[in-house]
Write a structure and sequence with these properties.
Layout: E1 9-14, H1 20-29, E2 41-42, E3 51-55, H2 63-72, E4 78-82, H3 84-88, E5 110-112, H4 119-149
Parallel strand pairs: 1-2, 1-3, 3-4, 4-5
Helix pairs in contact: 1-4
This protein binds iron/sulfur cluster (SF4).
């Protein structure tokens, strides 16, 4: 990642986490890990968010919520699955009340494994996500200028 054209805003949703991964996400915001040094701002509003960070697996109860948050986010956007539950269903995979990882509901750009996922892995995933966000933004800008020329 060379640079980011704007401060990326991030929304976090706890799908069905045991809260282990959520605590690690919160740890990223503490001065020890200081994810805000990348200019990242935590928001509760999907319309303001560029990055959707999900912890926990998807089930019948929350799949619509995950999809609605994703749909409310403007393009370009990036999804990060945080922890093995979000990546694949984890230890709950194939349980009667679990559908699987976040990619059962929406497209996932970055997978951050771990149980619980380590703050370093979350920060690494966010930095990867920022690179993908810039690529998507450039592709969107190119498509817009092509449309204008036509
Ligand atoms: S990956 Fe582990 S710590 Fe994270 S939500 Fe699943 S069970 Fe909990």
């Amino acid at each position: 990642m060379s640079h980011s054209s704007k401060s990326p805003w991030l929304i976090h949703y706890d799908a069905s986490s045991c809260n282990g991964c959520d605590i690690e996400v919160l740890a990223c915001l503490t001065p020890m890990y200081d994810v805000e040094r990348f200019g990242i701002i935590n928001t509760g509003n999907p319309k303001h968010a560029d990055i959707f960070l999900v912890t926990g697996s998807v089930n019948d109860q929350n799949i619509k919520v995950v999809q609605q948050i994703y749909e409310q986010m403007r393009e370009p956007k990036v999804v990060i699955a945080c922890g093995v539950c979000a990546c694949s269903g984890g230890i709950f995979k194939e349980c009667y009340n679990t559908l699987g990882g976040v990619d059962m509901a929406i497209p996932v750009d970055v997978y951050a494994p771990g149980c619980a996922v380590r703050p370093e892995a979350i920060i690494d995933a966010v930095v990867k996500g920022l690179g993908i966000l810039e690529q998507k933004r450039a592709a969107l800008d190119a498509a817009k200028s092509k449309k204008k020329e036509a």
